[in-house]
Design a protein that fits this description.
Blueprint: E1 3-8, E2 13-16, E3 24-27, E4 40-46, E5 51-55, H1 69-73, E6 77-81, H2 98-111, E7 118-122, H3 124-134, E8 141-144, H4 153-171, H5 176-180, H6 183-189, H7 202-214, H8 218-227, E9 241-246, H9 256-263, E10 268-272, H10 279-282, H11 284-295
Parallel strand pairs: 5-6, 5-7, 7-8, 8-9, 9-10
Antiparallel strand pairs: 1-2, 1-4, 3-4, 4-6
Helix pairs in contact: 2-3, 4-8
Length: 297
């Protein structure tokens, strides 16, 4: 698998092949809040073919997709992006709202000439790619366990349980490398997010827990998600839409999947059996296959 890095320009991405440690960047902004156009989003490019954009969840990073990246990069040019305030991307000024993050992604797509790019998202990233589809942006869309479809007590459950988990991860920050290599520790720390946490790859767990602990905008974005508007839908997305949900999702309960499909009535709903909140963790081969089936023209 080839990894290509460089600096993204306003119309297209130019690539450098000299230093594989360099990560490409491009601008992103919230037009609604009139944020500076100089704000950059960190991104990586892998593989070759029609472009495919992957958007991680709250507290994640470009490394959140490592489990399925090789399978996707054999077929497509995969563009991984760090959301504002995550990974290598600086934070947006002001409120950390879904609208502001969607604006940043919209600008990223527009600035790099990716108008018809297919998009895939996970959790918050899934909500963001659905929001882009609602706006008529991009091509085909795959959304795994998207947020924004909770109701009543489910909202408090989402916020309180996730906040408690993040506090624990921060307290254990210095021990994350060791804990990630303990099957028992993985089972305890990730029981809310995975149907089989003990079986997860230790390096994937270490990268994810470290990213969560180091995401300074986590609390602010979690607050906005819980207090902000629910996700709106559309009957006329720009391409095919697949909404995937883990049957054992203990964070965003499976009952929310039908609401997501109702908001996007042309969407196909795919259930992942023996799977928690992240299909790319628990069912990586199936998760990659669902993506490729959706986006293959």
């Amino acid at each position: 698998m080839r990894r290509r890095t460089g600096t993204c320009a306003s119309a297209a991405c130019r690539h450098r092949h000299d230093d594989p440690s360099v990560t490409s960047t491009t601008g992103g902004t919230s037009s609604a809040a009139k944020r500076s156009l100089s704000m950059e989003l960190n991104c990586e490019r892998h593989g070759a073919g029609p472009p495919l954009l992957l958007v991680h969840g709250l507290g994640g990073s470009v490394r959140s997709w490592d489990g399925i990246l090789p399978m996707l990069a054999r077929e497509r040019e995969v563009i991984l992006v760090d959301l504002p305030g995550h990974g290598g991307s600086p934070a947006l000024s002001g409120r950390q709202t879904i609208a502001a993050y969607a604006d940043a992604l919209e600008h990223f797509i527009d600035r790099n000439g990716l108008a018809d790019i297919d998009t895939v998202g996970s959790s918050v990233g899934a909500r963001l790619v659905l929001e882009l589809a609602r706006r008529g942006i991009g091509g085909h869309t795959v959304a795994y366990d998207p947020g924004g479809f909770w109701r009543g007590w489910e909202t408090a459950w989402f916020r309180s349980t996730l906040a408690a988990s993040v506090r624990l991860v921060r307290l254990l920050r210095q021990r994350i490398p060791a804990l990630s290599h303990s099957r028992a520790a993985r089972a305890v720390l990730l029981a809310q997010l995975s149907a089989k946490p003990g079986a997860l790859d230790p390096l994937l767990v270490q990268n994810e827990l470290t990213a969560i602990a180091e995401t300074d905008v986590f609390d602010a974005m979690l607050r906005e998600l819980a207090r902000g508007p629910l996700q709106e839908g559309t009957a006329t997305p720009p391409g095919r839409v697949t909404i995937g949900w883990g049957r054992q999702d203990r964070l965003l309960l499976p009952r929310q999947a039908e609401r997501a499909q109702a908001a996007f009535p042309t969407a196909r709903l795919h259930w992942f059996e023996r799977c928690g909140h992240f299909p790319q963790w628990d069912r990586p081969k199936e998760a990659a296959e669902v993506i490729l089936k959706t986006i293959t023209r």
